[in-house]
Every structure is written in C-alpha cells, then in structure tokens.
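Q: Fold this one first, please.
A: Sequence and structure below.
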Amino acid sequence: MATLVVCHGAWSAGWAWKKVRPLLRAAGHDVYTPTYTGLGERAHHVSRAIDLDTHIADVVAVLECEDLRDIVLIGHSYGGMVATGVADRARDRIGKLIYLDAFVPEDGQAVFDLLPAQEKARRQEAARSEGDGWLLPPNPSPPDTSAEDLAWITPRRRWQPAATFSKPLRLINGPLNLPRAYIYCTRLGPGDIFGQFARRYRDDAAWKVQEIDASHSPNVTAPDALARMLDQLAR
C-alpha cells in the first residue's frame, strides 16, 4: 500500500484529518498529516516571519526525518501551494501528487494571484483591519457543515500569517512532471475559486481529474467518500 502525506489547508492543521486518517490506515495505507508552523498545536510559534516557504520547509523536514519515499502527496486548498513547493524541493521522494480542491500554482504565483480581484481585496482588507496588518482571519465554514463539526473545528482554527498568501512560489528545479490528480468538490460555496483548475486539467493527459459530491472540506464533511477516492488514487 501507499504512504500518504497531507499538506492541509489554511487556518487548519493535522487535526482536521482526524476522521480520514483511520479510514486510510484501515485500507492499509501509512498516513502523515503534519501541521505547519503557527497553526494547530504549533500556533504558539506564530510570527510575522512565517510565509509559504516556511510551510514548505515544514513538510519537507517530515519527509527527510521520517525518510519517506515514493509517497502520495496530497494538497488541500491552500495546501496545494505547499504541496507544489514540496514536490519541487523533494521530487525524488514523491511518487504521485493529488490536489484536493486546491490551488495549483505556477512558478512565481502566490495565493493572492490566483484569487478573483474582489476576493483578494477583501482578504487583504480583513488582514489590515482585523489582523493587525499581518494575520488573515479564517474563512467561514461551508454551509453544509454540521453543528457538531462546527463545534469541533471552530475553536481549533487559527488566524494565519498573510505572508503565506502573498509570498510567490518559486520552482527551483523546473516544471513538475510526476503523475498528478485533481479532486474537485462540486458543492460550491460563494464563488468558484477552484473550478479553474479542474477545467484546466480535465483534458490534460498528465492529469486525472475526478469530482466528489462534497463541499470544500470533505475531510470534515464527507470523510468516507474522500477516503475511498484517495484509496483508489493512491493504488
């Protein structure tokens, strides 16, 4: 079976994959869900110095210290930025790359470059007016998130340094050419930020594009369906 490493989304952490980890392990996979610096159980390390490169280095360090190879790297949402950087820095350790309703950046792009102009401005203003100029408040959870799940996730989500959204990704080892898949969540919230990537790669032979009937965080709202899909893609 496969070794799966998850690059989680913004404001989140490894804890957000609590429902999915046992399902994938029951299917025979080894699963790692590292938390980025400044979030989750590492929130006490938050600082202005944290940017996208910090989070890429966090995950690369796990691969190196655990000596993980031929892994399936999963990037969810903002984690697509991180996963792309990890795949660039440690491509000899990556067997397959899966984007889960995630950003797929090109060299020189930041999260803010991939957002609609109005959404970019909204988030920048929120950082200025609410986050002391350097912290981004969490987005609202999808409307189909249950009251029980909201009670679980809301107190655990943390404000995230805005530099993680403004720092461009630099691919230092050239274009990626490893096997890639994209999972598009079809229960859309306000705006459709991630549909651009599903459409872009649907007819690309280097990609496998699939859809899941779930809102943006199926690791929370649809863990069984997500685990089945990841199990199939990992095999």
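Q: Good. Now the second chain.
A: Here it is, same layout.
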Amino acid sequence: MNDSTLDSRTQAAATTIRKLLDAVGRVVVGQGAMVERLVLGLLGGGHVLLEGVPGLAKTLTVNTLAKAIDARFARIQFTPDLLPADLIGTLVYNPRDGTFAPRKGPIFANIVLADEINRAPAKVQSALLEAMQERRVTIGDTTYPLDTPFLVLATQNPIEQEGTYALPEAQVDRFMLKLRVDYPSRTEERAIIDRMASTREAPKVEPVVTLDELDEARRLVDDVRLDDRIKDYIVSLVHASRRPAEFGLDITRLIEFGASPRASINLAIACKAHALMQGRSFAMPADVKAVALDVLRHRVIASYEAQAEELDSDRIVQRILDHVPVP
C-alpha cells in the first residue's frame, strides 16, 4: 500500500470514528475521554476495564456505544451467585432423543458489558478468562470460537467492598486499558441536568457504524507506521517499571511488580490506534504518552511502602513517563 492510499484510507477511518464519537456524545455528557478510550479499545481489539464510583454514566456509555454500532450486544450483571453457565452457556438435555445440545450464553456477542465485574466469584472469572484471552469458549467437550470482533467492556466500583471479589492479576492483565472515570465538571453537570433530569425517555442513538466499517478501521491500525525509535521508547518505558534503577529512577521500593510483556504489545497497538483516531498514518511519541497511563496503571503494582506514602500506580507511571527520554 503506497503512502497516498494509506493516508486517504486513514482519513476515511478517522471520519468514521468521529461519526461514532458524535453519536455517543449526543447521549452521554461529560465523558468524552472515556468514550474515546472505549473506541480506542475497539480499534485495538482489546478489552477495557472502567473503574469509578456509581452514577458516572459508565453503563450508559457502554450501552450507547454498542447501540451506535450495528453489532450484537450483551449485558451481563455480575452478582455473587452467578455461575459459569450463566455466562458461557451449558448443555441442555433433550428427552426426545436422549442427547445433549449446547445452549450458548450471553458471552457469544460482539460487545459484552460485564457490569460490576468484581461481584462475581473466582469460578466465574475463570470462565471469562478463556473467552477474553483465547476468543473461544468450551461447553462440555466442544470448544466454540467467539464472534469477531469480541470485546469485553467491564465496570467495577472501587469504593464498595461488601459482596465483591478482587479480580485475579492474570485477568486484570488481559484488559488492554484500565480507565479511571472521574466526576464531570460543573458545566458538564449543568448540561447533564438539562438533558437527563426529565421523566421523558432519554435520548436514543441509532447505529451509525457497521461492523464492516469498524473492521476496516481495525485493519488499518496494523498499517499505521511505528518507527523503530518509538518501539525502543515503548520497551524502555516497560523495562523502567521492572528495573527502575537502570534508568536512574529511585522508585524500586515503590514497585511490587512491573509491567508484563503484554504491556509492550498493548502499548504499541494502542499508540497506533490513537494515531489513527487523529487521522495520521504514523505514530509519534505523543501517542505513546497519551495512552501509556491507561495501558500501564493496572500492570504496575504499587508496593505496601508506596501505599503507605499514598502513592498509587498512576503517580509511579507518571514518574517513569517524566524520566525516560523521549525520542
């Protein structure tokens, strides 16, 4: 593919993405950054974990995004009594011929909203693990491939502990991005009142993007140019989270575990997807910095000493970003 063809296709994909963002923005107020990251996850084929207190439109945003895409959508409310079969499906006995037939669960969709994911016990999280990583599900003795695209958008409440289960680190690492959803600004909250404080039905969104258009944009992410110097920069950021002393960073005591190789892969994909969203066919260091916090915050585990000093993973990752030289 020559440069002019790639540039024109990139501009077309960026127009499609803006159309999707505008459609969601007509319903959701004040969460533009969250919506952009959700779309970035769609483009990069990576799952997204949304963390925030109740009432910040996490579920509304995911619902609206799914409706704006002509795709299969499923919402699963995670509860302590949820069973793996409620998620992936089960075998159902047919008394007429004495056989068992598979009944597929809600996981067989393009976009799956795992609402309050940390309320489900370990056996349900284990069932979700195979689907998230392998893009397949085993029911009985048969393994079924999941639809393409397949994306888990999960929400969790960080302040409520009763009836919740901490997600296994192996599962958290399978999320491409972890987003921290904050309160809207004063102006945004005023707009929320104007739009939503009514007994009338909330604004609706119609599909504006097809799966084919989304698939075309996803394929273009692979064609976005990633210079060797940017690849080296990504590797340096990830290695600085594991061996900070080698980079002149005095934060070894603050880090329990550094980022896994999955961080390097996801950081490369995310920065290319970010470039595509800006209408560029090439990635820049600014793209890496723009997505690094969301890719690394759940992979760099703060030590007990850091927590005692009220330093979380965000601050540690920011120190790394500020210190590692930009190419």
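Q: Anything worth noting on the second one?
A: The first helix runs from residue 3 to 25.
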